[in-house]
Design a protein that fits this description.
single chain; 482 residues; alpha+beta; Hypothetical protein af1432; 3 domains; five-stranded antiparallel β-sheet; 20 helices; 52% helix; disordered N terminus; disordered C terminus; binds fe (ii) ion
Length: 482
């Protein structure tokens, strides 16, 4: 927010609202989820209701009203933007989808609100999932004498006022938009997968609809969407993996000069590459330890099971054919050391070769309960370019480096001038100098989280002298701060 027009004491208020913001979203969404599963008299719903109410009361002690609105991919609580930390991302975007589904810009809660009003509001809100009912939500609230909770239409949200009045506005908006595209794809993928469990085949039209904005974002060179694939340890990772592979594949395809149409097909094929895992029992998929040889046998069937699912699609098109090949070939490896086994003259398709690289890069950097710590993206890239490079099509590996850079998003670097910086996104003009955020200055001062010092990209006078591992960084942090 800009300082212009701030009231005295606004900074303290901002800090208060900022602190409340994340918890507010989590509790609101938790309550909605519980109320969708059970009746309001259920113990879980009642407990969530009490917790949400306690939070509202805390907020309303300090403020006359609590207003939650969404604009340009962000949430604002009383005009203060709620930071979307990685732990909050899944809730952030799932709740945003709930408001959008009801064509709402936000909700306003006034001082004097009662528990009964909140309870009834939640019931009506959950019941208004159907767009025809959503239209009448505001009237339904009035009819139920809910006078302290009001809905806000998207038209009422003053986007201008909410956005930072600075030259960064455009960047923030573009990044915000990319984030929205990404998380919509994650939530949409979850729906496709859950539906496919019932129907036995994925909804191709829905997959195309999700991938189109991803292709558009990448074609606009808004590569912050690629940076989002680096966020791993959240609840929705199973679905985010599909989206990550789709995003990385499309971006790699763009680096290789593929046409928009082929990129769209590649995005869909990437999104559905693991659909055959639906046939693998959950105990194997979610096993928090290394798999036994028998369990590996079951797991190794997922490419062929995916191919089978794709054959159940209605109609036939080049996209279905490409999708089938990607399902079947994404673990075959360029040197044929993977699975399933093919005859020597079977050639891996270009799209399969790209998806195989994107898939491996995303999977080896993911959190696994039985790994001491996941490989960092830099370590993952080193491994793929080093000992395991024979497994991959060289052209696809090159495209991966073009897409994520030599120091992928999330890598902590030490530079020649003794700055500690965090890589944010690659710089296609010079892969050795990514766009990054300064974490520690040469004098040892740590840049506060709310003051972003960004190199857009790393200046030509700088160079990377060391890649810090997460452990190294802890030490470096202490040393530099001392
Ligand atoms: Fe797979
Ligand atoms: Fe995969």
């Amino acid at each position: 927010m800009s300082d212009t027009g701030k009231r005295p004491g606004q900074h303290t208020e901002d800090a208060f609202i900022q602190e409340l913001g994340g918890t507010f979203l989590t509790r609101f969404y938790g309550l909605l989820r519980a109320a969708r599963l059970y009746s309001v008299s259920n113990q879980t719903v009642q407990r969530q209701l009490q917790e949400f109410m306690a939070l509202l009361m805390k907020g309303l002690e300090e403020e006359t009203e609590i207003t939650l609105v969404t604009a340009s991919g962000y949430f604002y609580l009383n005009n203060v933007r709620i930071r979307a930390q990685s732990s909050l991302l899944a809730v952030y975007h799932a709740l945003m989808a709930e408001l959008e589904r009801r064509q709402l810009g936000g909700v306003r809660v006034l001082q004097g609100v009662s528990l009964a009003e909140v309870e009834r509001f939640i019931q009506l809100f959950v019941g208004a999932e159907d767009p025809t009912l959503a239209e009448g939500l505001s009237d339904a609230l009035a009819a139920a004498s809910i006078n302290h909770i009001l809905t806000i239409s998207p038209q009422e949200v003053d986007v201008e006022e909410l956005q930072e009045v600075s030259r960064e506005t455009e960047v923030v908006t573009e990044r915000g938009r990319a984030r929205k595209v990404f998380w919509r794809a994650v939530i949409g993928t979850k729906k496709i997968v859950l539906r496919a469990v019932q129907t036995g085949r994925p909804d191709l039209r829905q997959a195309k609809r999700l991938v189109q904005p991803v292709v558009d974002t990448i074609m606009k060179n808004e590569l912050s969407i690629v940076g989002l694939t680096a966020v791993k340890g959240h609840d929705e990772y199973t679905y985010a993996h599909c989206v990550n592979v789709s995003v990385l594949s499309v971006s790699m395809g763009q680096a290789l000069g593929l046409s928009r149409q082929v990129l769209a097909d590649l995005g869909v094929a990437g999104l559905l590459h693991d659909i055959g895992k639906l046939s693998v029992p959950a105990v194997v998929l979610q096993k928090p330890a290394a798999l036994t040889p028998e369990e590996w046998d079951v797991m190794r069937r997922h490419p062929i099971e995916g191919l089978k699912m794709m054959t159940h699609m209605p109609g036939f098109s080049p996209l279905i054919l490409e999708g089938m090949r990607v399902c079947l070939e994404h673990h075959m490896n360029h040197d044929r050391t993977g699975y399933p086994k093919f005859n020597a003259d079977w050639g891996q398709s270009t799209l399969s070769a790209i998806v195989a690289v994107a898939d491996c890069f995303d999977a080896i950097t993911a959190h696994r309960a039985y790994h001491k710590r996941p490989r960092s993206a830099f370590e993952g890239l080193q491994y793929m370019l080093g000992p395991s490079r024979v497994q991959f099509e060289p052209m696809a590996l090159w495209a991966l480096v073009r897409t994520v850079g030599l120091y992928p998003a999330g890598t902590v670097l030490l530079t020649a001038s003794n700055h500690v910086v965090l890589s944010l996104s690659p710089n296609p003009g010079d892969l050795r100098r990514p766009h990054c955020r300064v974490i520690v200055r040469p004098d040892g001062t740590v840049v506060p989280e709310d003051q972003t010092e960004v190199w857009d990209p790393m200046p030509a006078t700088e160079s990377v002298t060391k890649v810090l591992s997460p452990e190294d960084y802890q030490n470096a942090d202490q040393l530099l701060a001392a």
